[in-house]
Model the fold of this input.
Amino acid sequence: MRKTAIVTGAARGIGYAIAKELEKQGYAIVNFDLQANDENWLHVQGSITNAEDRQRCLDQTIAKFGRVDVLVNNAGVAPNVRADLLDMPEESFDRVVGINCKGTFFMSQIIAKQMLKQDCLGKKRGTIINISSCSAEVASVNRGEYCISKAGTAMTTKLFAARLAEEGIFVHEVRPGIIATDMTSGVREKYDNMIAQGVFPIARWGTPEDVAAAVAAFCGDTFLYTTGNHIDVDGGFHIRRL
Done:
């Protein structure tokens, strides 16, 4: 039987690269997003912030493929405007945290319940991977709501990992650094300068495919004695250096 992966926000950028890589690995792909782009996939239009949309995504997935083996919580947003912490609008906080953290939590909840109903296919019952960010730990005072949302995602990973480990469902977090996507296009000059200054030990922009490779590794049956952890896909940015 073919395994099925739901990737939220798979219409472009990191999510699209993840979905394409998992497709190469033999997964049937469900793109849960506000837009579609690959005719070979099941597309479910909707938002992870909406309970009815989340249920519809699950229902359509089960109707077509019969099961869910992988959930990649990739959908996320940055603030519309980078504002000083003291000037951050409450509406921006609600939007960013609502999508990045709350949406991820409740998407994980509904899919985990489905996985618990299924027999194991391979060596585990299921895998949930949360796409977080180096901002889960690195403070950016001009986009505090984003940092808070990603820190919340990190704890969401630990919570679901602790709850689901005995059920054979593994939960991981991938923390991208500076990845060349639409989200970072507006601050390209800033990060170009940081790369030139040697801030990143691997002195280049990351690519969506770099992130996809890490996700694909976690989705397989290789890592069977680790859960609730994260991997930094950030060119070594997380390394403290003197």
User: Anything to note?
Assistant: The beta strands are 4-8, 28-33, 42-45, 70-73, 126-131, 169-176, 229-233. The chain has a mean pLDDT of 96.
